[in-house]
Amino acid sequence: MSRISVRGFAVASATAVTTVGAVVGVAAGNEAPSVGNTEATAADATIADIPAGAQAQVQTASLTQQADDQSTQADAAALKSAQESARKAAAETAKSKKDAADEAKAKKDADARKKKELAASRSSSRDVGDLVGKSSYTIAETQAIARQMMAGDQFQCFSNIVDHESGWNYKATNAGSGAYGLVQALPGSKMSSAGSDWQTNPATQIKWGLNYMNDRYGSPCGAWSFWQANSWY
Fold first, then answer.
1. Rounded to an integer, what distance in angstroms lies between the CA atom of residue 6 and that of residue 21?
2. Cα distances (Å, whole numbers) of residue 211 to 159, 181, 185, 216, 229
3. DSSP per residue over 105-162, as a string?
4. Contact 157, 175 (CB under 8 A)
5. pLDDT per residue over 194-226, tens digit each?
6. Is the pTM of this model over 0.70?
7. How is residue 48 annotated by DSSP?
8. Of 10, 90, 209, 220, which sits 20 to 30 A from 31 (CA to CA)?
């Protein structure tokens, strides 16, 4: 048997060692050693120096201490694991709350935009409605209708074409070709697809002109780019 040091648990098991030492001493005809002497001796002893009958008790004390140490380590590991799990759970909860708040804000913003767009659309419809149905229209009125019927970034391109084609005269007629109206549709009767009042209503002419430019060139600005290169569209 190897000489394993028992210094670490000698004092912890001093009572057991003292008792054993006393029994051994009496059996051998010697005086029982004092408790202090026994503890000092046990502290520097090895397994081989302890009587065989006491070794089992000493080894048991050692195993108990080891078990206690392992239990303490296991408890510490379990506590650390629990703390880490709690931290992760808290982080996930916080993220979920943030995502929910962001989603709610995005929905609120989207609803606000829709309401604003709807209000603008209704306002535009009222503005156009106030201008249509008249017996005659000024250039400013006709341009106001056009502005309400298209995206703001497309109006200038549309206006450039109309400036060159008709000078914003919705009754303009090309005597040579028969082209008619703001956008000089050829023949003018093509605009009947946008409304039967195509000859007298600039809104109908604008609607047809927008559809034509969007279908053929993608947008009024696309049509204006083509016009600049060819002087027609």
1. 16
2. 15, 15, 12, 8, 21
3. HHHHHHHHHHHHHHHHHHHHHHHHHHHTT-S---HHHHHHHHHHHS-HHHHHHHHHHH
4. no
5. 999 999 999 999 999 999 999 999 999 999 999
6. no
7. G
8. 10
Q: Are 22 and 33 in contact (CB under 8 A)?
A: yes
Rounded Cα–Cα distance for residues 47 and 54 (Å): 9
Burial environment of residue 65 by CB neighbours within 10 A (0 to 12, 13 to 18, 19 or more): middle
**Alpha carbons 183 and 145: distance in angstroms, whole number:** 14
Burial of 196 (0-12, 13-18, 19+ CB in 10 A): exposed
The neighbour count for residue 150, using CB atoms within 10 Å, is: 19
d(CA 224, CA 218): 11
**For residue range 92-121, what is the model confidence (pLDDT) as tens digits?**
888 888 888 888 888 888 777 766 555 444
**Band of the pLDDT at 3, cuts 50, 70, 90?**
very low
